Amino acid sequence: QLQLTESGGGSVPPGGSLTLSCEFSGRTHYSICMGWFRQAPGQERESVAAIDSDGDATYANSVKGRFTISKDSTRKILYLQMDGLKPEDSAMYYCAADYRPLAIVSDVLEFEYRGKGAQVTVSS
Asked: Which residues of 63-91 are buried (b: 16+ CB within 10 A; e: fewer)?
């Protein structure tokens, strides 16, 4: 079992930056894949980024070059550094995790464990 808690959401103008954090706890001594997905009102959920137990990361094309996912396994925190934010990045952002490797479950939307989300609003 894993417990995930996001923090760091907020409101920023276009071009601004935010860093989301996700503290994870529970059975963390196993290899864990982690990631972020988002959902805006009235829209489908969208995978944003994922990182496997070796630290290899993948990104959605819509955020590639602007967002960076990283994980501090000692402190048990997952991060999402978001730069160059655009209004279309506004959404609820969710942290997710799974014990299965990315080779098995490649889409963050299919990860078993999820947090409750953090709101990101990009507006002038």
From this structure: beeebbbebeeeeebbbbebeebeeebbb
